[in-house]
Amino acid sequence: MVYHIPALLKESIDGLNIQPEGIYVDVTFGGGGHSMEILKRLTTGKLIAFDQDEDAVLNVPADERFLFLNQNFRFLTNNLRFNYISSIDGLIADLGVSFHQFDEPERGFTFRQDAPLDMRMNKTGSVTAAQLLNTMDEEALATIFYRYGELSNSRKIARQIATTRNTKPLATVIDLIDTIGNQAPFRQEHKFYAKLFQALRIAVNHEIEYLQEMLEQSLALLKTGGRLVVISYHSLEDRVVKNFMKTGNFEGEEKKDFYGNIETPFRIINKKGTTPDDQEISINNRARSARMRIAEKI
Fold this sequence. Notes:
It is built from twelve helices and nine strands. The protein has helices at residues 9-15, 33-40, 76-82, 99-103, 129-135, 138-149, 154-165, 173-180, 189-205, 207-221, 235-247, 278-283, and strands at residues 23-26, 46-50, 66-69, 88-94, 222-232, 255-256, 262-263, 266-268, 291-297. The longest helix is centred in the middle third of the chain and has 17 residues, at 189-205. The chain starts with 8 loop residues before the first helix and ends with a strand.
């Protein structure tokens, strides 16, 4: 089974502008696709990779230039300092869920197969999707579905879940679909469930908050001229990355100096972002929603 096919592989590694003696970080190691390409371009340099999924350990190469850390990337700075690294030449993040995680039914990431409602990227994490659905109050659930899934009927969905769980807790994918299936628009069921499951996954794994923490740390760690490369797969992630690269904050608020010049910590390399071409999508359909942004620290 293929663990993961990385999107925009050549474009992203080219975007890092790798120096053979540099220090680089891959905060989403997964199947190791991006890491292996980085290692090909290093001589005496070093690559540190992070992945919170313990299954990723199986893909770690035996290479003295490589260090794997089975950690969430929100602990980026502390882990690098522990390994005597205070600055880096580049960082890459390929966000989202790996093929491996989607294709293991027991992980509960997909609505296409019945499985426990888990959705934890780190299997030792404390809160599953089922626990979230059965314990959060109705208002909080509605907020999750609206904010992270952009579902206009979020309140109705939350109300039906709250009503159902009073008599029978939601434990499996089928339990959830049976509970809220009548809220899915006709002939748009797959899109509806994709948004719903995305919202739950983001909430379970604190994806937006941890992404913001990682980006702030990356700015502090990058050397002047160092590159930040991020591949996102939905508009929520992409907005966070775009705003941060453009303004140095997540609201996208432009700050100007005394002379009216916009103050920003980065030089944007690809202003509109880069998306896969038709040839890549024909080979790897799951890459169709990918958008890569590259910035260089000023």
